[in-house]
Amino acid sequence: MQKPRTLGDLRKSNYRSVSVKDELRANLIRKLQSGEPIFPGIIGYDDSVTPQIANAILSRHNFILLGLRGQAKSRILRSLITLLDEEIPYLEGCEINDDPFRPICRACTERLRECGDATRIEYLPREQRFVEKLATPDVTIADIIGDLDPIKAARGGHALSSELTIHYGLLPRANRGIFAINELPDLAGKIQVGLFNIMQEGDVQIKGYPVRLPLDVALVFTANPEDYTARGKIITPLKDRVGSEIRTHYPATLEHALAITAQESWTERDGSGRLVVPQFVREIIESIAFEARQEKRIDKRSGVSQRLPITCLENVVSNAERRALVNHEEKIVPRCSDIYDALPSLTGKLELEYEGELRGADNVARDVIRQATARIFKKYFDGVPLHSVVQWFELGGKLKYPDGASSEEVYAQLKKIQGLLEKPDFRCQGQG
Fold first, then answer.
1. N or C: more exposed end of the chain, with fewer CB within 10 A?
2. Phi and psi of 17, rounded to 5°?
3. Distance CA 221, CA 225 (A)
């Protein structure tokens, strides 16, 4: 069926325009009724964050996600476009995507008066209805709201006070869509004032001229909880106008964390099936993040991002890949020792307290790796009799092999340890 291309055709099609928040609400209701996942690919939030976001959308709220880095806040906001219709009609050439039935900009109002039902219609896909801005101190009110354009005024012969001279900012250009601001408290105070005025009254002042723009927009934000307080950098009137405040969190269980890392990490590199990552190696890598979040020498206010185990696993696989290439081995099998070679992927993601700075990032990371290894070792071998293995080391036994040693060399060294390969649990682990 051919799409309506004029305002008259659109009227005949019985199209009914709805606000963006009603649109989000209607599509969410359909997903809930059909049992579809609301945010595909978001793991570990099914019983905590996702229901709260659903409640905010059903309530037609603007909302903010509060959480430390690496908690999928930006990804959730970008996923909101799946709750928008595939496309919507708007007046052709309009900078702010005016609703054909309810235009708000002066240019479209005048064009509609001149052309009537012959006014041309275009269609806006949902991907173009999401506008995102990272808040930085240098963002200006002109970037967000807009400014007067003297060149536009001169070319059109308009007075500077005319709405026809406005160069619209990001927020008006997000009209009939979603406007997302990451790290909201980093915006200057006067920009925050401009935002809450739009959220509540819809009035904007540009260069001292009052312009009323009743925008149809869903506002969503992210922030660090430390900044989003009265002692932080957020102004209270803006905080008061945010409908729902939703706390995100790191994975609560090792299983959720493993699933996230497996989903996000780049490990299957050539599609040949050569890579075999033992489960215990994956668990040690994941436990590094869990241990780091409890480590007193690491700043808990900054958090330990979920990107840490993702990049660590990728580095561990790369180290094993390099070794397999040098030794001409068919299989790529990471070892626990490969985790120490992945230190560059860890140290940059750890914000240290004073005590940690004194010890050094490398040493703190090594301590955390040892704690994670002990945690997973205990999980697999708690209660397993290892007396003969311990005795072998106590009697002077040593196990040494270079980082680039082949699997055969390592296996030959392991066979020297009395009773080690006789343990069924160890044989199982050795098979990877």
1. N
2. -85, 145
3. 12
Helix axes 279-294, 307-327, angle to 10 degrees: 140
Q: Is residue 271 part of a domain?
A: yes
Burial class (CB in 10 A: 0-12, 13-18, 19+), 381: middle
Burial class of 144 by CB neighbour count within 10 A (0 to 12, 13 to 18, 19+)? buried
pLDDT in tens, the chain (432 residues): 688 999 999 999 989 999 999 999 999 999 999 999 999 999 999 999 999 999 999 999 999 999 999 999 999 999 999 999 999 999 999 999 999 999 988 888 889 999 999 999 999 999 999 999 999 888 888 888 887 777 776 677 766 666 777 788 899 899 999 999 999 998 888 888 878 777 776 666 666 666 777 889 999 999 998 888 766 688 888 888 899 999 999 999 999 999 999 999 999 887 777 899 999 999 999 999 999 999 999 998 889 999 999 999 999 999 999 999 999 999 999 999 999 999 999 999 999 999 999 999 999 999 999 999 999 999 998 888 888 888 988 988 888 888 889 989 988 888 888 878 775 554 444 443
The rounded Cα 211 to chain-centroid distance in angstroms is 35
135 and 155 belong to one structural domain? yes
In a domain, 238, yes or no: yes
Residues 94 and 194 placed together within one structural domain of the fold: yes
What letter would DSSP give residue 221? Answer: E
Same domain, 32 and 139: yes
SS3 for 372-425 is HHHHHHHHHHCCCCCHHHHHHHHCCCCCCCCCCCCHHHHHHHHCCCCCCCCCHH
Residue finishing a domain among 180, 214, 247: 247
Find tokens 């490969």 and name the residue.
338
Q: What separation, in Å, do the N-terminal and C-terminal C-alpha atoms of the chain show?
A: 57
Structural domain boundaries, residue 414: 384-432
Establish if 322 belongs to a structural domain.
yes
The reply to whether 159 and 206 lie within a common domain is yes
User: Any idea what the CATH number is for the domain that residue 103 is in?
Assistant: 3.40.50.300
Cβ-based neighbour number of residue 431 at 10 Å: 9
**Residues 106, 148 share a domain:** yes
Q: Is 349 found in the same domain as 266?
A: yes
In a domain, 2, yes or no: no
Sign of CA dihedral 330, 335, 337, 340: positive
Helices (H), 145-278: 150-156, 170-173, 189-200, 236-241, 254-264
